[in-house]
Automatic annotation (TrEMBL):
InterPro entries according to UniProt: Cyt_c_oxase-like_su1_sf
Protein name: Cytochrome C and Quinol oxidase polypeptide I
Lineage: Bacteria, Pseudomonadati, Pseudomonadota, Hydrogenophilia, Hydrogenophilia incertae sedis
TM region positions: 43-63, 75-95, 101-124
Keywords, in A-Z order: Membrane, Transmembrane, Transmembrane helix
Naturally occurring in which organism (per UniProt): Pelomicrobium methylotrophicum
Source taxon at top rank: Bacteria
Amino acid sequence: MHRRNKLFVSVGLLWGLAGGLLALAHLAQPGLVPGNVPKAHGHMMLLGLTLMTIYGVGLHVIPRFGGYPLRSEKLAHLQFWLANLGLPAMVAGWLGTLNWLVGIGGLFSVAAMALFAFNMVFSVRLRSPLDGR
């Protein structure tokens, strides 16, 4: 498995742990953590734990279903950095009530999603061994 894909899964697990701890802190003492804790927690769990794990496993497994290597390792590396810069920016923005930071983080996160989709489509569907190319 490519090191980047392992990092995606590892980072995803760390986001899950951090999101769980944030929720516990908020439940134990509401107001202890400033900002919009529910939004931060939700994104830590969905974009962090879930999507980062999907990225890591997907980049490894999905191209193999089509019988071809990943279309672009460079795009996957860029996706890694966009995803891992975007989510912390969003979380920091919500916890620090910095809406502009949430916006920048959101753009990075959506760009990472688009790169993943592009890479998957061009790795599998458009280069399938069944299409005769």
